[in-house]
């Protein structure tokens, strides 16, 4: 999967101008008027597009969450890998402009209210994954859904944090980490062999594989 979540270039320009001001003179010391002037828009346009100073910091997240929601609303053959691909989609969007991602990271770290909002924002990604898994596999144990969603989100954030702190980290590193998550849950696409068309199927699954996933795979084979 190579797509990125869509983020509007015009909004990105305003976000960049705001983050540069926050970094240079502090979040509390920067006014909406200063941001609007630096971005070349009116004060009313800023409020109409973003709402407030804290909203502009997380504007990219809002667009990424919307893009991720649309992606998860599409049909996917494998719900587990769809979640991992969604995580990669978000990572690639930040990795496409690491300078701005690092600037946001620095600003958020310095402002307690922004750090609190970031925690809530991270949970929103996790909740999207959780709800998607439950919707895709109604028989899935809720603990498996929330556990997988939380682990994917935590691994994503760990790898992303390395990028934000200046390390040379690529989407391939996240892909490898997510493959490990899939194997830990016993749901990696390679976890079961592909029998021939007319073969008698003798299925062996990892003990860690959720029963709902076993049922899904058996149903796919029988269909």
What is this structure's SSE topology?
Layout: H1 9-25, H2 32-39, H3 43-49, H4 53-57, H5 59-73, H6 79-95, H7 98-110, H8 112-136, H9 142-164, H10 171-184, H11 211-222
Pfam families: TetR_N (PF00440)
Protein name: HTH-type transcriptional regulator EthR
Keywords: DNA-binding
Oligomerization status of the protein chains: single chain
Catalogue the unreliable spans: none
Secondary structure tally, helices:
11
Provide the CATH topology: Tetracycline Repressor, domain 2
Could you say what the CATH architecture is? Answer: Orthogonal Bundle
Protein model, in words:
Keywords: DNA-binding. With 223 residues, this protein is mainly alpha-helical. The chain has a single domain (7-197), classed as Tetracycline Repressor, domain 2 (Orthogonal Bundle). Helices cover 70% and strands 0% of the residues. The longest helix has 25 residues, at 112-136. It is elongated. The two termini are 26 Å apart.
Question: What is shown here, in short?
Answer:
With 223 residues, the chain is mainly α. The chain is built from eleven helices and no strands. Helices cover 70% and strands 0% of the residues.
């Amino acid at each position: 999967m190579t797509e990125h979540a869509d983020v509007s270039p015009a909004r990105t320009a305003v976000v960049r101008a705001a983050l540069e001001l926050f970094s240079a003179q502090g979040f509390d010391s920067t006014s909406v008027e200063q941001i609007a002037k630096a971005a070349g828009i009116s004060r009313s346009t800023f409020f109409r597009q973003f709402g407030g100073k804290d909203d502009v910091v997380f504007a990219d997240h809002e667009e990424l969450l919307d893009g991720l929601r649309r992606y998860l609303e599409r049909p996917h053959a494998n719900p587990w890998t769809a979640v991992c691909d969604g995580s990669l989609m978000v990572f690639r969007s930040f990795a496409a402009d690491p300078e701005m991602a690092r600037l946001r990271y620095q600003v958020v770290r310095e402002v307690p209210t922004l750090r609190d909002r970031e925690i809530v924002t991270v949970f929103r990604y996790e909740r999207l994954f959780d709800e998607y898994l439950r919707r895709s596999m109604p028989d899935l144990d809720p603990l498996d859904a929330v556990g997988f969603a939380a682990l994917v989100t935590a691994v994503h954030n760990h790898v992303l944090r390395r990028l934000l702190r200046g390390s040379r980290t690529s989407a391939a590193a996240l892909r490898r980490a997510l493959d490990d998550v899939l194997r830990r849950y016993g749901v990696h696409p390679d976890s079961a062999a592909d029998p021939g068309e007319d073969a008698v199927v003798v299925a062996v699954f990892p003990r860690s594989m959720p029963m709902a996933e076993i049922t899904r795979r058996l149903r796919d084979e029988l269909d």
